[in-house]
Amino acid sequence: MQVKGFLRNGLIPLSIFAAVFLIYSLNLYTDFRSGDYRRLLPSGDAVPNTFLPYILLKDKTFIFDEQVQHLRRFENWVTDPAFLVRINGHYYSAYPPLTGILAVPFYFIPLVIGKVPDIGNLYYLMKVLYLGRIAASFYTSLSAVFVYFALLKISSLSKLKNNKLWVILFTLFYALGTCSWSISSRGLWQHTVAELLVSIMVYLFVGLYLSKVSARIVCAVGLIAGLAVLARPTNILLAVALMLYFYAYKREYFFNFVAGVLPSALFFLIYNYAVFGSPFMEGYGARGDFRWSTPIFNGLMGFLFSPARSFLFVSPPLVLSYCGIVKTFKDKNFGGKFNIALRFLSVSFIAAVLLFSKWYTWHGGSGFGYRMLTDFLPIVVILAYLVFMNFSRFAKLGVIILMLYSAYIQFNAVNNHYSRCGSNHNWDFYCLAPRSL
Fold this sequence. Notes:
transmembrane helix, membrane, 437 residues, mainly alpha, Glycosyltransferase RgtA/B/C/D-like domain-containing protein, 2 strands, 20 helices, 2% strand, two-stranded antiparallel sheet
């Protein structure tokens, strides 16, 4: 009976993971053999977490001093690359280290058996990038599995019938028709682990409504939310939204949630004090990179209508999430028992869009598509799915066609543009065109 249960409940998610990981990996070897590191490294922002596992295992430190001479190649050999910050004569990552820490298991065996002895050699440096891609693809594929389970759970809460095929379809869309493919799976960005953690958090959060609320599960939701902030600090918007939800609607579990967040908060404060000299200073602040200079209207219009940066042109089915946000507040039956929780998740997403709209690189620099919003994709996909399930058969067919278009855009981004899109193309269709950089 247990074997049958596993085959019935476990085969589909395992198949999703295997299929998605395989697709993510199809061009990995050719990218490596090309000798062009740009094919394996989507941006300099991914450098610190890609090489941190190597430094942790080889040098037993968070300090990049021994390897910075080799990493300067990723920023035209400047003395102080933007992805590192120099503190008291030592080089540290300018970005949170959690993504790199969690990638250590993928580097361990190759480094132990001497397959990557010295990144001063371009061939060995490419091997590190290769390992980083494997880790990123693994974690993004795993994220798709948790989105699958979360969609099943929210389908049950919303009493949606005959939904498993639609759940599989939306899970594959999440994995292959969004920036999960062109961003998270392509390198060890902050987004990679943050998106995985958000998908786990949503899965656990939805699960609270399917059974008796457990203090341990609430604590786990807090733990994962805290880790998501460690992976990418702007996810504090999501953590705060959840904290407010538990305070307002599940107050007896509020301190369980806070207890879950506490370990990440302590790590954040201790790490920042040890590296930057103050518990409240981090990499962005240390390099003076807090610039909120974009007029918020300009950034918002970019996220809504830019050919290169908006859901509308890059992943059109995600536009349904905007309708989902409206329905969440207008229809108390939307999302079933999860309606109130969806409101808080929706507000966190709206707050993130407004925040990033003010950021001086609202467009995500050279990253492809709506890179800055990638962390929120598990939430956005759930909102879009709930709207989609109320469509007629004909309307669903139209959305499926748009899903295929979205998958093509991601395929093109990965294979022809190497997951890059320069900010000079924010308002044209160059980055969506089938051509190589």
